[in-house]
Amino acid sequence: MIVRKAQKTDASGIFAVEREAFSVPWSQVAIQRELQNTALTMYYVLVTDRGDIAGYAGLWHVADEGQITNVAVLPAFRGKGYGELLLRVLMEAAWRVGCASIFLEVRVSNLSAQQLYRKLGYAAVSVRRAYYSQPTEDACVMECKKERYCWSI
Fold it and tell me: For position 149, what pLDDT does the model report?
């Protein structure tokens, strides 16, 4: 497995992961737009030895803040540390381009993701009521400041 910066040609592979990972996936057109807008976005993909995309992570970069859009790994590759690897690569790239803090939303029921985010230095800052659909659920908004990021693995 390798993690590399996403390319425009990765849209269909990212879309396949998106459909497996989320109850309300982004459209392939939306993903294509994200990959084209490199002034404001950064995306990384997890690629298997066969060249298939097994996961991805994305972030919007505005001024000195980052907003993680999605972190997703195909079910067959979960529980092996690949989500953390993707997240670390993405966060370190965000720090390099000048982000002082990074935000994300996570379902309040997704305790394993919240545990990973806390491990990396995120803290809960607020709740967005009924943020998610299918099923409707609140989102926990979390923030990581650069100085709080946990570098050790």
Answer: 74
Q: Whole-structure pTM over 0.70, yes or no? A: yes
Catalytic residue among 43, 44, 56, 105: 105
CATH architecture of the domain covering 2-148: 3-Layer(aba) Sandwich (3.40)
Quick check: is 18 catalytic?
A: no
In terms of Cβ atoms closer than 10 Å to its own Cβ (0-12, 13-18, 19+), residue 16 is middle
For the chain, which residues make up each domain, given as ranges? Answer: 2-148
Catalytic: which of 44, 117, 122, 132? 117
Instruction: Sort strands 101-107 and 137-145 into parallel, antiparallel or unpaired.
Output: antiparallel
